[in-house]
Specification:
Helices cover 59% and strands 6% of the residues. It is mainly alpha-helical and 557 residues long. The protein has two domains: 373 residues, no CATH class; 143 residues, STAS domain (Transcription Regulator spoIIAA), CATH 3.30.750.24. A six-stranded mixed sheet has the order 4-3-5-6-7-8. The longest helix is centred in the middle third of the chain and has 26 residues.
């Protein structure tokens, strides 16, 4: 049974509290930046750290996963809602809230019906490409902010790049100096003193410099007034057509968060030796997103970077998240005046450095060396997301996932087995020379279910085994069915054609090691009709060791 704050003891409570202070220092500047990416006020980012964080921490099974809006989610919000309403308008905020609520409902449905496995369609190359495309789009906007250049942050990627290059002549040197300082400190600090909340240090120092040097009057943009007060319970008032328009983007957000969130949750659970429940984690994302949408925030996902920071700080409970919620609430009640003069170039630098790892250059390089096809999948997803849009990117991602599955399933391992059951020859190579298990007998194993993508490939492999040069006269084929857990109508049709061909060639057919669970379906599809079934391959070879035995089996068929 789940208990909130599992793992908290009197011995680690101080460490967990200190980790919470560190999380607060990391989250405040980042969430302000992510809200700006999403085209929302700073309060939208801060509100996500209060009620949604509390309900998530009390429901989730993971002891360490940190929930928060992240860069990818913020970019998805901006790209999906930017074409429906003007960024910063009341309708825009209402749509972002509605989108979060829809995400929450989808998460709850995934948890109730145990459909989290659907996120497995988003393989690593797809996630790398999708998130990398979003990250590069974000980075261009942040570079403009760091240079003090005004561009349309809700525009297309190409328009943003053109805007940045076209505005280089109007670069604000003070903004550039703040950005350079921030980037140097953040990168150096990340390398040498990881435990220091450098984002907070940069934000404080940059704000002091702006106030002392009066840089606000010299063209350096600042955050501006942040309304004080705790988040209020509300509801987005939109017509039902607008709610329907938000479903595709909410589905994209849900699937990306599911894939990343469950993976991170499971990995830390395995690393720190505690059990996690995927469906409970999905439920936690659901209630957190409904809470976010009902109190003026936007979609909440998992934060890999903050989770890693908490793990490095020694945290093994959800107490830091509760400390974060309390600290943010106090800031909203009593300290919003401290946020007004934060320079936008510093926020841009903080967000820019935070999303650099999301660009995926290192991962793409690894994919290039490991598997060129998977690299091409990631690259297509990256380019589609970047140049066409996030929704198109997620649709292409699912299509590519299906293509990848079909490609791999269409070429399963198909081998001729030796008498001891070990593979002696692969039948995937059309030019492969023949091999027999015993004189006149070939035992063939396909290590996959039989379905439309591989039915013809299997039939072709059996034909090659019978006719391969050097095979001698094949009189009997035994198909090892141990790995065949299922079949479909298309595969059954291909198998029927193979059976007719074998009969015309004077080759008998039988099966071995048939799975009991698969037998009813295989019989219903007609695959087993009239064929002898042996318990083991050895039994098949013993039964077929003489010509008389083979002829007797041929007569029975």
């Amino acid at each position: 049974m789940h208990r909130p704050l599992t793992g908290l003891t009197s011995k680690n409570i101080v460490r967990e509290m200190l980790a919470g202070v560190t999380l607060l220092a990391i989250a405040i500047p980042l969430n302000i930046g992510y809200a700006q990416i999403a085209g929302l006020p700073a309060t939208a980012g801060l509100y996500a750290l209060v009620v949604p964080t509390i309900v998530y921490a009390l429901v989730v099974s993971s002891r360490q996963l940190v929930a928060s809006p992240d860069a990818a989610a913020a970019a998805l919000v901006a790209s999906s809602i930017g074409g429906l309403a003007a960024a910063g308008s009341e309708d825009y905020l209402a749509m972002a809230m509605a989108q979060a609520i829809i995400c929450g409902i989808l998460f709850v449905l995934l948890a109730v019906f145990k459909l989290g496995f659907l996120a497995n369609f988003l393989s690593k190359p797809i996630l790398i490409g999708f998130v990398g495309g979003l990250a590069l789009d974000i980075l261009v906007s942040q570079v403009a902010k760091m240079l003090g250049i005004s561009i349309d942050s809700g525009g297309e990627f190409v328009d943003k790049v053109v805007g940045v290059f076209g505005g280089l002549g109007s670069t604000n040197l003070y903004a550039l100096a703040i950005s350079v300082f921030a980037v140097v400190v953040l990168l150096a600090g990340k390398r040498f003193l990881k435990m220091v909340p450098w984002a907070l240090v940069v934000m404080i120092v940059a704000t002091v410099v702006v106030l002392v040097a009066d840089l606000g009057d010299r063209g350096v943009a600042v955050l501006g007034e942040v309304p004080a007060g705790a988040p209020q319970l509300t509801w987005p008032m939109l017509d039902w057509q607008t709610w329907l328009l938000l479903i595709p983007s909410a589905l994209a957000l849900t699937m990306v968060t599911t894939a990343e969130g469950l993976l991170v949750s499971r990995s830390y659970g395995e690393k720190r030796h505690y059990r996690t429940s995927p469906n409970r984690d999905l439920l936690a994302f659901g209630v957190a997103n409904v809470a976010a949408g009902a109190q003026g925030s936007f979609a909440v996902g998992s934060s890999t970077s903050r989770t890693a920071a908490m793990d490095q700080a020694g945290s093994r409970t959800q107490l830091p998240s509760l400390v974060l919620a309390v600290g943010t609430l106090l800031l909203l009640l009593f300290g919003t005046g401290l946020l007004e003069d934060i320079p936008s170039p510093a926020i841009g630098a903080i967000v820019g450095v935070a999303i650099l790892p999301l660009l995926g250059f290192r991962e793409f390089r690894a994919l290039w060396h490991q598997d060129r096809f998977e690299f091409s999948i990631g690259a297509v997803c990256f380019l589609t997301t970047l140049f066409v849009g996030s929704i198109a990117g997620i649709l292409v991602a699912f299509v590519l996932a299906l293509v990848n599955i079909a490609k791999r399933a269409s070429n399963p391992a198909i081998d001729v087995l030796a008498a001891d059951g070990s593979p002696t020859a692969s039948l995937l190579d059309p030019a492969a020379t023949g091999a027999m298990t015993a004189p006149g007998v070939v035992v063939i194993r396909m290590a996959a279910p039989m379905f439309f993508a591989n039915g013809d490939a299997f039939a072709g492999a059996v034909r090659r085994a019978v006719r391969a040069p050097g095979a001698g006269v094949v009189q009997h084929v035994v198909i090892d069915m141990e790995a065949v857990t299922d079949a479909d109508v298309t595969a059954a049709e291909s198998f029927e054609g193979l059976t007719d061909w074998l009969r015309s060639e004077g080759v008998t057919l039988s099966f071995s090691r048939l799975r009991a669970a698969a037998r009813p379906r295989l019989e219903r599809l007609g695959i087993l009709a009239g064929q002898h079934i042996f318990e083991t391959n050895r039994a098949a070879l013993d039964a077929l060791r003489t010509d008389d035995a083979r002829n007797q089996l041929r007569e029975q068929q």
